[in-house]
Structure to design on (551 residues):
């Protein structure tokens, strides 16, 4: 039997695994499914068509599956395994496509994740991070305090978004991103090392960033990009970077036209 | 404890002074100590090994003593120690310390923390500190007496804010802020990095300095920070001139920041117990970590 505080409200149709704990004054809505090993602490709210994967920890005052603003119908929100949803976090439920959060993410205090956002695995989102509706965050992304990602915007894997930065257009992977609007400041080599990238790969990426972004500018050097895309024996990570940059440019052109 | 019969959950093992008030929907954990006259308004959550002194006020939605947001925290019984007469706005969060970072998060006396502030693991707030709305303190930060940090500022790990200094609104702080300094960006589009922009006038008044001390302090701040080049040499010159009192303390502070890493003195305590933490126990001592209640 789940361990539910007598002061908590868990709707009858909610599906809770056997060892789930629900603290006092928390509310679990009727369409919620909670996998084994989850802890819902006190004063937390889980509503909407929400699924919490195994080992998810929801801290006090957090709201998971909140309906997006307006009179939208109850949306869908899918969380993977072993996520930590810290105090005062709000995760909105997607009404078109579901809000998806992968595994092993740490979502720190007072962050907000918009409706329909797609978040990968092993992300760390510092306090007061804002992720816009429909944004796509790939794996191993780190975001610092007060950083924000605009609606329908993507951030590539292994990137670092500095504090107060605002990502308004698709950002490349492996990058250090800083400023408002965001600029590419170099390779996130520290995170890459921690994630087990080899020295050769990091070196290749550093060279590619220097060529693509003209040192510290956010303008993409299109000539360098074309030349690298045509290069047969390009480092696979650099190939991924060039592909992501090309896709971002294409998307930008499409919205400008 | 408050005599109103309200819906709340207080662990029987918690030590709560008889005249402390615990409002509705509050949750108080078993290892918590709450001193006399402290008021917990609605849905305040206090867990962990947390001791709270007398006459504090916690507004709605505060969460204190939860586990740190730090991956090095191993689940030990680390502490959050809060002094007397502090005011906490709504949705303020403060976390317990980490084992390797000094074991304790400490908030002193007479502080004001406005809505949405966050005090992370192993921070030290001295006395009479004012934090504006949604000020984020990362881990291992020291904020000295009388410092003012305005709304929406974010502080990097291991930063020290000096006595009676001011950090302007919406300022990212990556290095130590010297005492009595006014630290901010010139504008809000960050065309330049934030830096010391002169003395903090209200801080100079609040510190109650003698006219001579104040004059010397203004002189030293101007000498050091009008143009920040060759700071080390200028500090040496000022010390050789024989500055005294607060001005000498300012030189000493800047010197220590320069000895640190990236202008952050407390980086030297990365992975060690900082000197302020020593009086709060070695955990192996077997002492009940709860402070005696007075």
């Amino acid at each position: 039997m789940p361990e539910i505080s007598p002061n908590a409200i868990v709707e009858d149709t909610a599906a809770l695994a056997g060892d789930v704990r629900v603290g006092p004054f928390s509310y679990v809505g009727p369409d919620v499914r909670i996998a084994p090993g989850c802890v819902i602490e006190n004063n937390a709210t889980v509503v909407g068509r929400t699924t919490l994967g195994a080992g998810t920890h929801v801290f006090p005052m957090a709201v998971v599956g909140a309906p997006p603003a307006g009179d939208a119908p109850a949306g869908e929100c899918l969380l993977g395994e072993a996520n930590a949803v810290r105090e005062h976090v709000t995760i909105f439920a997607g009404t078109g496509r579901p809000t998806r959060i992968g595994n092993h993410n740490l979502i720190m205090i007072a962050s907000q994740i918009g409706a329909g956002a797609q978040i990968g695995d092993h992300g760390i989102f510092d306090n007061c991070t804002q992720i816009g509706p429909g944004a796509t965050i790939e794996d191993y992304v780190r975001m610092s305090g007060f950083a924000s990602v605009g609606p329908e915007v993507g951030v590539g894997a292994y990137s670092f978004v500095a504090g107060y930065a605002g990502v308004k257009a698709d950002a490349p992977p492996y990058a250090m991103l800083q400023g408002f609007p965001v600029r590419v400041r170099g390779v996130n080599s520290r995170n890459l090392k921690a994630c087990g990238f080899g020295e050769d790969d990091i070196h290749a990426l550093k060279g590619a960033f220097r060529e693509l972004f003209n040192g510290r500018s956010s303008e993409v050097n299109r000539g360098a990009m074309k030349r690298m895309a045509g290069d047969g024996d390009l480092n696979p990570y650099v190939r991924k970077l060039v592909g992501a940059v090309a896709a971002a440019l294409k998307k930008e052109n499409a919205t400008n036209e | 404890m408050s005599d109103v019969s309200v819906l709340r959950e207080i662990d029987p093992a918690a030590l709560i002074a008889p005249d402390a008030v615990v409002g509705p929907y509050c949750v108080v954990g078993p290892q918590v100590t709450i001193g006399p006259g402290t008021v917990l308004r609605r849905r305040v959550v206090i867990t962990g090994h947390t001791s709270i002194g007398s006459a504090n006020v916690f507004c709605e939605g505060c969460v204190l003593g939860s586990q740190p947001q730090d991956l090095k925290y191993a689940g030990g019984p680390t502490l959050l120690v809060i002094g007397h007469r502090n005011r906490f706005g709504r949705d303020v969060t403060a976390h317990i310390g980490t084992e390797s970072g000094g074991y304790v998060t400490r908030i002193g006396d007479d502080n004001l923390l406005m809505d949405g502030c966050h005090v992370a693991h192993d921070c030290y707030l001295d006395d009479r500190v004012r934090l504006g709305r949604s000020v984020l303190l990362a881990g291992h930060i020291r904020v000295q007496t009388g410092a003012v940090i305005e709304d929406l500022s974010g502080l990097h790990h291991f930063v020290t804010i000096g006595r009676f200094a001011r950090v302007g609104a919406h300022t990212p702080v990556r290095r130590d802020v010297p005492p009595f300094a006014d630290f901010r960006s010139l504008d809000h589009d960050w065309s330049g990095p934030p830096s010391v922009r002169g003395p903090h006038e209200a801080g100079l008044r609040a510190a109650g300095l003698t006219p001579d001390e104040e004059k010397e302090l203004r002189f030293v701040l101007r000498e050091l920070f009008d143009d920040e080049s060759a700071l080390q040499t200028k500090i040496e010159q000022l010390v050789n001139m024989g500055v005294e009192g607060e001005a000498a303390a300012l030189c000493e502070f800047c010197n220590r920041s320069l000895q640190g890493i990236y202008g952050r003195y407390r980086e030297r305590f990365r992975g060690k117990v900082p000197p302020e933490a020593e009086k709060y126990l070695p955990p192996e001592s077997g002492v009940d970590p709860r402070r005696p209640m007075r």
The first strand of chain B starts at residue 9 and ends at 10. The domain at 67-278 of chain B is CATH 2.160.10.10 (UDP N-Acetylglucosamine Acyltransferase; domain 1). The longest helix of chain B spans residues 211-225. Helices of chain B lie at 201-206, 211-225, 231-241, 245-259.
